[in-house]
Design brief:
The complex is a heterodimer of chains A (724) and B (153). Chain A is of the alpha+beta class and 724 residues long. In chain A, 30% of the residues lie in helices and 22% in strands. Chain A is built from 20 helices and 27 strands. Chain B has two domains: 73 residues, Ubiquitin-like (UB roll) (Roll); 69 residues, DNA polymerase, domain 1. In chain B, strands 2-1-5-3-4 form a five-stranded mixed β-sheet, with helices on both faces. The radius of gyration of chain B is 15 Å and the shape is globular. By secondary structure, chain B is of the alpha+beta class. Chain B contains six helices and five strands. Classes of the chains: A alpha+beta (724), B alpha+beta (153). At the A-B interface, helix 7, helix 8 and helix 19 of A face helix 1, helix 3, helix 4, helix 5 and helix 6 of B.
Chain lengths: 724, 153
């Protein structure tokens, strides 16, 4: 807690900004008892037990669909010996976290860290709470602690035939010193964790009662609509506010920071309607000639550029390629893509000279707070952010809190009035933090037996960190570019043994802002690598499964998931007539994933994905139902990217503005998904993202099997899949 | 002004006639279960029932409705989450983030009302709402479960 103890405004701003980039700040998080609990005294920062036995589990992460809230509550309930039916959850605010010296650690929900980044301290907090409850009962009954048992929120002493509940002991327990030595339960003894329990948050999602950020209503609140320049680096040139100032409900028309126009009205519809009626002249700025074609040319140049950042290197790749019996080469490309959360970005802010409050859906409430503090121009302890439910995150709500900044700046113009700023879908699509675009040139060398002796992989394209977190670059190099290609784990280890290899990155940054997009750089890296491995297998005249297996002896966990999907899909046995299979495996966010896709392609080139068999080794599974749901959902997300996902640029701006021009997977496209988690224990891997990596390459490899066509550029909507 | 029949109640709302039903529901009536997703009737998050027919409310001006037309939103589908679709959704833990689920549930309820035993092809055709979390397979299973439960009574 060295940094946190004297947390200055500047330290906080810098620290929380770094946290957005997926970097651990390495805070030690204690589970000490707090002294300032206002209402029910807490047992510790994580656990509050009310007199009616209701248990409140405090969660630093947010729930955005991925099931983390329920999973973390299961882990706490497990170690607490709680009655699951009494479990509720709540979000502390980042302001409370700062005031309590970051007792809850960081508030980031990204990088598939929701559970694995919190399980240790939350479980320990729960054990400590249970020990304190037991101690309180032992003190009251004057019996040894060792004779007391706990189960389902009840404390029992068999010898004296006495029992009480957690709720009755909570007040006494909260006054005790927290134990120093806590022992976590072995996963094999779990009875609440590891079980397919129902989510805690389902009922309100079925009745329309769940309040998302966009649904917030505050007394006296006004609504704001915003239109930012669609041109990368562009500005507002002029507009005539008088044209719309008298429209119904309009309260204010304003320019925001030279780049946007905002209308504030009594309702959001009126604000948006007025804004749509306003003619804004834009200064197109310095990038007016940038297009998808010019970006592709910029990246293509990088494929053979001399200078590049090295990510992984072994042996002498040039010599090995020169001496190879067979050399193959291919160039792949991946486009800009959009998160397309169902709930557009929005935030509500209320500003007075004394304080600034924000309510929003965020994946990183501390970064949201840092943004609010800067925009508000107020001290850190005068600002706070209340977390509301997210209608999807996928990385967009951690990449940038531009919407928070805007809401605060507008609220500052109308002191005291709560302002709800909602982005229209068009504003949301045009101002995404896009999945970065890259190209990749691969050269493989085979010996006369078809063994891979060399692999050269040159990535050219955009760095996320260079734009969003330049302070996280390492001597100019973006380590995140090499996700899944690293020589060593545990986060994302390359899973093949190849004696000579060189993976490097020619950074080329077009003017469109990139962001962390569910799966991030693993998505394209897995396509480049796994499709090219298939190409090498084909060139060697070998079965793609056997070809991979030969290189995986030293990577048993990578191999185990691959073997699982091969076996479950029936690899090596005939598929249904006209149906072809493709494989892919990858490791990222601490987990090992593989998929086998079954597809058919009609004579007209129409693709049908019949079935996907998937396997995951995430170490520990906290809720098998939710792991299965994340695997299924990952295919919807990954296949959306493969089939349709593409933002195109023209004249310095993006061309797509809504779901009618940015199609995604719907029910009709969704294949059957069979998931086979094979948790091997001993580690905690993520689940929300990893399966996405293998969705596209497994299907692309199956398309090759079906058609003999190698598709090296996505999305497939641009490709002719008719047989070669 | 418009006179609307929403969830069985007749309501008079003061709005411009071109205001979409979605925003009347959300901002005038206070029913925020119906969601804004695209504003161009492409995603289905705003789906409601109009005389039992699933309808995307984000592009329909309130002036196109009469008080005779029965508008039902997610809040009016059942008083206690007891519609067969809601029960099946709960049983299979369908939602992830949940934002699209009001629309999905309204679309599924309308489908089941006209087609008590929908085939996979029927579900593909009728369930065109977008879910970015990717709950499609659970939605499909839940529709079939609801159909089965309803048949059994």
């Amino acid at each position: 807690m060295t940094i946190a103890q004297n947390l200055s405004r500047r330290t906080f701003l810098a620290g929380s900004a770094a946290a957005t980039g997926g970097l651990s700040l390495g805070f030690h998080v204690p589970f000490a008892q707090a002294q300032d609990a206002a209402t029910t005294p807490e047992i510790n920062a994580w656990v509050v037990i009310k007199p009616d036995d209701t248990i409140v589990v405090r969660v630093a992460r947010v729930e955005m669909g991925q099931g983390t809230l329920t999973g973390l509550a299961q882990l706490v309930a497990e170690e607490l010996d709680a009655d699951w039916s009494k479990i509720t959850t709540e979000y502390p605010t980042p302001g409370q976290n700062v005031a309590r010296k970051r007792i809850w650690g960081d508030f980031q929900t990204a990088g598939s860290r929701g559970i694995r980044g919190s399980e240790d301290y939350m479980r320990k907090g729960a054990v400590a709470a249970r020990m304190m409850l037991v101690q309180a009962a032992a003190n009251e009954w004057k019996v040894p602690v060792g004779e007391i048992k706990t189960a389902k929120g009840v404390i029992t002493h068999a010898g004296s035939n006495r029992s009480t509940t957690y709720g009755k002991m909570a007040a006494a327990a909260s006054k005790l010193e927290p134990p120093k030595d806590v022992k976590l339960r072995d996963a094999k003894d779990w009875t609440i964790a590891g079980k397919p329990l129902k989510r805690l948050d389902t009922v309100e999602k079925l009745s329309g009662k769940q309040i998302y950020s966009i649904d917030l209503k505050l007394p006296g609140m006004l609504n704001a609509a915003i239109k930012e320049t669609p041109y990368a680096g562009g500005k507002v040139k002029s507009f005539d506010a008088s044209k719309i100032e008298k429209m119904p409900g309009v309260k204010k028309v304003m320019k925001l920071e030279d780049t946007a126009v905002v209308v504030v009205a009594d309702t959001w519809w009126r604000a948006k309607n007025a804004l749509d009626a306003l003619e804004v002249v834009w200064d197109e700025g310095p990038n007016a000639n940038v297009s998808s074609a010019s970006i592709a040319a910029m990246l293509k140049e990088g494929l053979d550029a001399k200078e590049a950042f090295v990510g992984n290197k072994a042996g002498d790749v040039d010599a090995a390629l020169a001496g190879a019996a067979k050399k193959i080469e291919a160039v792949y490309a991946y486009p800009y893509q959009h998160h397309m959360t169902m709930e557009p970005m929005n935030a509500t802010a209320q500003w007075t000279p004394e304080k600034c409050m924000v309510w929003t859906a965020t994946q990183n409430a501390e970064a949201a707070l840092a943004t609010a503090v800067e925009a508000a121009g107020l001290p850190l302890d005068k600002c706070d952010v209340t977390r509301l439910n997210l209608g999807g995150g996928f990385g967009r709500r951690s990449s940038s809190h531009d919407f928070v900044k805007q809401a605060v700046l507008v609220a500052k113009e109308m002191p005291g009035t709560p302002i709800k700023l909602i982005w229209s879908r068009e504003q949301d699509v045009l101002h995404g933090t896009f999945h970065p675009t890259t190209q990749c040139k691969l050269v493989g060398g085979l010996d006369d037996k078809g063994n891979v002796t060399a692999l050269r992989m040159r990535i050219s394209g955009q760095s996320i960190l260079a734009t969003l977190r330049p302070q996280a670059l390492v001597n100019g190099r973006d380590p995140a570019t090499f996700q899944g290609l690293n020589a060593e784990g545990p986060e994302g280890q390359f899973g093949y043994e190849i004696p000579n290899l060189l993976f490097d990155h020619a950074m080329r940054n077009p003017p469109f802002r990139p962001g962390f997009w569910r799966g991030v750089n693993n998505n394209q890296n897995a396509i480049y690598l796994e499709c090219f491995v298939d190409e090498m297998a084909h060139a060697a005249g070998q079965d793609p499964l056997e070809f991979r297996r030969k290189m995986m002896a030293k990577f048993p966990k990578h191999l185990a998931v691959l073997n699982t999907v091969a076996e479950k899909a029936g690899w090596g046995k005939p598929a249904a007539p006209g149906v072809y299979r493709g494989l892919a495996q990858h490791m990222g966010y601490g987990s090992y994933v593989a998929a086998c896709a079954e597809v058919s392609v009609s004579d007209k080139g129409e693709l049908k994905i019949h079935r996907i068999v998937a396997s995951t080794d995430c170490g520990h599974v906290v809720n098998p139902q939710q792991v299965a749901a994340q695997i299924e959902g990952s295919f919807a997300y990954g296949l959306s990217a493969l089939l349709f996902g593409e933002m195109t640029a023209k004249g310095g701006r993006m061309e797509q503005e809504n779901f009618d021009t940015y199609e995604v997977v719907r029910m009709e496209h969704m294949p059957a998904v069979e998931s086979y988690p094979i948790p091997s224990g001993g580690f905690w891997g993520g689940v929300g993202e990893p399966t996405i990596f293998v969705a596209a390459p497994a299907v692309l490899n199956a398309i090759f099997a079906a058609t003999g066509k190698r598709i090296r550029s996505v999305p497939l909507k641009n490709q002719d899949l008719r047989k070669a | 002004m418009a006179r609307l029949n929403i969830n069985g109640k007749i309501l008079d709302v003061e709005v411009e006639p071109d205001t979409p039903l979605l925003w009347v529901l959300r901002e005038q009536v206070g029913l925020t279960g119906t969601k804004y997703g695209c504003g161009v009737a492409a995603c289905g998050a705003c789906s409601v029932h109009v005389d039992g027919v699933v309808t995307r409310s984000c592009t329909l001006p309130v002036s196109s409705f009469t008080a005779d037309q029965k508008i039902v939103t997610i809040e009016g589908l059942s008083p206690d989450v007891s519609h067969p679709i809601q029960k099946a959704w709960l049983e299979l833990d369908v939602p992830q983030c949940g934002y699209c689920q009001s629309g999905q549930i309204m679309a599924a309820a309308a489908l089941l009302a006209t087609n008590p035993t929908p085939s996979d092809a029927d579900i593909n055709t009728e369930m065109s709402n977008i879910c970015r979390c990717g709950t499609y397979n659970r939605i499909r299973a839940a529709i079939k479960l609801a159909a089965e439960n309803t048949k059994r009574g």
